Structures are given as structure tokens and as C-alpha cells.
Amino acid sequence: MFGLGFGEILIIIVIAILFLGPDKLPTALVDVAKFFKSVKKTIGTVRDSLEQEMSVAEIKEEAMAYRRELIKARESLEKATNMHKIATDLNSIGDDILGDAPVLKESKDIYKEEQITFEKKITKETPNV
Question: Could you identify which of 4, 28, 58, 119 might form a hypothetical disulfide with 8, taking C-beta atoms 3.0 to 4.6 angstroms apart as the criterion?
């Protein structure tokens, strides 16, 4: 205990008996034992609170790591969304420039209407010679 050997502890006990006397020594030993017990309890409490703080610090670090991952995912999603919008805008601009945009009025002029019937067409037969 405290790096003291048996001989050193024995010398301390003898000196305590000489100074305190045999009538005050038991109460002094009880007080010293209570003091060491309270010191041990305080050290245990401090150790538990430090371990708890360390676990809280680890949890905070994990939460920050998850937050950073979510921010990166959000940024990549925003980039993908913006790319889709840019591609859509470029396609519409390209259609306007090339004239590929469908116009209903012009499309009627391009296609000719045909009447469909189920009557047999009469063709001139040429005699076989």
C-alpha cells in the first residue's frame, strides 16, 4: 500500500502508539480507515464518470461521422438532381435549335390522309399469249 514495506508500516504504527496513546489509537485507526474508504469510493466514482464521459465522447464521434456521411450523400444527391435538370434543359435547347420540336400544324401537312376500304381493286388483265 502506497509503496510501503512491512518494516515501514511497523515503524509508523509504533510512532502512532507513542504519540496517541493506547486509549486514542483505536478511534484514530477507525478515522483513518474511514478516510481511506472515502478516498477509494471517490476514486471509483471519478473513474466511473470518466468512463461514462469517454463513452459519451465515442457516441458523439460516431454521430458526427454519420452526420458527415449524410451530408456527403445529400451533396451527391443534389449533384445528381442538378445533372438531370441540366440534361433536360440541354435536350430542350437542342430540340429548339435543331427544329426537332414537334409542331402540330406542320405535322398535318407532312402526312397525307388515305382512305382505307375493303373493296377489291379492278386491274386490267393482259391476255397471256
Answer: 4
